[in-house]
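Structure, all two chains, one model.
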Amino acid sequence: MADNAFLYDGSLCIACRSCQVACKQWNYLPGEKTKFFAKAGGYQNPSDLSSITWCIVRFYEIMKDDEVEWLFRRNHCFHCTDAACIKACPVEPVKAMTRHPKFGTVFVNQDLCIACGACEEYCPFGVPHVDENLVKARKCTACYDRVANGLLPACATTCPTKAIRYGTMDEILAIASARTKVLQKEGFKPVMYGKKQLGGLHSMLLLPEKLDYYTDLPANPKISRDLGSLEQPTKAMPSMSLGVASLGLAVVAIEKLRQRRNSLMTKKLEEVESD
Amino acid sequence: MTNHWIDIGNSDCIMIIGSNAAENHPLSFKWVMRAMDKGAKLIHVDPRFTRTSSKANIYAPLRSGSDIAFIGALIRYIIENKLYHEEYVREYTDGAFLVDSKFDFNDGLFSGFVAAKPTYDKKKGGWNYQMDAEGNPKLDKSLQDPRCVLQLMKKHYAQYTPEKMSEVTGMPKEKFLEIAKCFCATGKAGKAATIMYAMGTTQHTYGSQNVRSYAVLQLLLGNIGVAGGGINALRGESNVQGSTDYALLFHILPGYLKTPRANNASLKAYHDKWTPKAMGGDKSANWWQHTPKYMVSFLKAYWGDHATKANEFDYHYLPKLDENTNYSHIALFEAMHEGDVKGLFLMGQNPAVGGPNARKERKALEELDWMVAADLWMTDTMEFWKRPEADPKKIKTEVFALPAAGSVEKEGSIVNSGRWMQWRYKAAEPPGVARTDSWMLGQIFTKLREEYKKGGVFPDPIVNLSWNYGGGEEPDVHLVAKECNGYAMDSYTHKDTVVKKGQQIPSFAWLKDDGTTCSGNWLYCGSYTEKGNMAARRVREDAPNNIGLFPQWAWCWPVNRRIIYNRASVDLTGKPWNSEKPVVRWDAGKKKWIGDVPDGGWAPGTKFAFIMLPSGHARLFGDPLKDGPFPTHYEPVESPVRNALYSQQTNPVIKMWAGAMDELGDASKFPIIGTTYRVVEHWQAGQMTRNLTWLSELMPDMFIELSHELADEKGIKNGDRVRVTSARGGISAYAVVTHRFKPFKMNGHVKHQIGIPWHWGYSGIAVGDSANILTPHVGDANTMIPEYKAFLCDVEKEA
């Protein structure tokens, strides 16, 4: 399958964070009410991904041979091949968490999502989040709506230094390999992240320094054994209306999730009634 | 910029100094990265390790305010090691010119110093070239005469050794040598280095000299006029270049014509005073000899048919500057504080946050009878009367807030740092009752004229003003642009071509000094011609020399020349120094220049390269400046150290203010160096970003940055609330404790510096204390730009 993919090249990124803002703009996501976030040296905010923040830039200040270095990492959905979120999604027969049949990236079908939170629970990277107002799981869509119309994803479009690239997997791997050679020539030991992890990620990172410095990036992300082995890629686009959640996925603590969803729905209903 | 954004990609070595381009001009990094892809080296010199430094091959720390000690040491390195581009220095600069025997320099003071004023008497001090009997400068083309500019320069910078440099700047000597080796290698013909700079360079009491030191450096290396070279000012807003070209500053009229002084009592006196005489005979193009044509065409644009030869083209309608009065930002607020200014118009400006010594400037606003302020949101300045310190009951100022249209809500042009005038279209209607600036000005003018028609003091300039911008409520921007370009007021013949009355003028060479033409800004003559609106062009096609000029994309002043001083990119026969990236090339067969629009079409060798200067040679010896022909290291007005080079501590000719709230601090009480800067997440005084949720989210709170070493001394931990104080006041902020700031070690002394972003204020979504509470009311000797970048302060953990 000729999947598409992202490449984030940390050696080109200037951490201008315009990807973060472009993502909010395209996806109509509201700003978060944030506070100074000391842990990330004051520069990162919001402190993590959320239902209304699908893309952030993380900062890593490190000391290397007595000299300071400042590393950056764009953090959004990795669009895994072995996607825990898809496996965990209990909606049947067509899952709400789904793989785009043409692009291979992963998105939440908002019509089908029941906000059970299973994807949030199982994602090894902490990407999807259930939005308590919309009562839906929300995350990076890889801008399939833009890509289907011949545009690049918002983040890749806005990036001034081409640190974020998007294209077919072959194109992306070719760019990564060319950049790796350039960086090696300049004396870097770049690390390619995402070729092997979880069956291959559709958002790969080319990092100028070793993984240890990127303290919150798991070198070997694992998905819960409960979810089984590599999923079968979903071929068909969901065209069904909202189905009833299957209770067949015994491994999920489904009761807990149902309770959460019910409480969200109740809260939402109360809000609607009080309006 | 001498060059332009795309051209950065042609560079072999990029030095970013006094700028955090990655954060404040992120798009510039598209071209920086393009150059680096091709093997260019990136050098970043800055007090603080920033997002720019993170991408640099060499990062070198430099104590705020010590640029000239560093650049001076590079100049010394170049001269001592003969790394300068000799042919270029000899033929294109004044390096070979002999200087008056009276000129001297001693312990930080140039000859001609008048302590009482304080100022320099340049004539007495011999700040001029030696002239021969014909009135041409005397030269020594061997560059050996001890009185030639190059040798005087060598002497001037002899003290600026790497060791001394390190003692002044705190930059390790090894880092300096690494930079020197890399940057100065571009003195070789065919190699180019560029300098990207911004407010870290200019916002000092010797900011103009900082910039000049870069120009000197680049001239020695032959890096001016060539592709990938130049000195490139990164403008802080999308249209700062345009606003400067159109005379937003008090000392110039549009097109950099001089503002008349009170003693320029007639138009003839003005022309005599400001039209330079050529030096060096016919080979000097001395382009400013055309000043009268540009001035008269400008007056015709203002007063149209009313401006006639008989009334000196209404020259007397122009306000004249009093030679002894300063009209800069600081001076205006000083006067306002004294109650001498009654009314204030602000358009897109928020001085309550952006002005230096903000407590004083906010207080000064209380003295106004009225303020009219146009902006997209309610600004801190509009709301100064309810700021934390204020008692609204005691403030009489009447504030009129005019909601303004944003840049995408109106049609018109903006001029980017690379001098490109780009036409923009209206993308959306302004919200509510918001109106464009031109609508506001048009309405105010029309109403004022109605009033003046009834009488008043000196109504003539207003009543007789030519206002031909259509009959609508809003001036037609196309008519405005056409007038800026200029058109024929009467039919005339220029070199056998008839220009009919009303026709657009094709180029400023066609402007006349007899009232036949009008042009609101001679530099923009050629931007809107009979062929149409040149700024609206969008042809994505490069010129044949293929160096990214894209000559049919928009339009660029002057005459669509994309790289200025390009006659210096070739040797005297017209052969490019760099055959792979030629800017222009003389085609001897066709007898014409190929490539960029050349600095004049004359054959190579027939005119000197720097056509705007009377001598035709670029100035290593900068006699027009007020504070010396050679950039010289002085300390900031507030500095924790003695000047290690001279007993003269500070720039001797700056203006000091001694009114209320103008206190200066000393290192015994305020031992830490403070500097202000911007972050990518906010813009300027914050009114356009602290009111947007998406951007407030990124950087919600005011913070300062300090080193681990200083934090340990003060018992401050990352994320603590701290109090920063200066002689002017105090602010609270979060502390970012970081390795990106390091104490400066200078000859055994250790001095700390902290960094303070200046975007925050009390209005908007993201609010916080303003850095400019701390900054002093002192400015550059030449421009009066405030010294925001180096002052004294202290920091303590907040109780």
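The CA atoms of residues 246 and 458 of chain B lie 25 Å apart.
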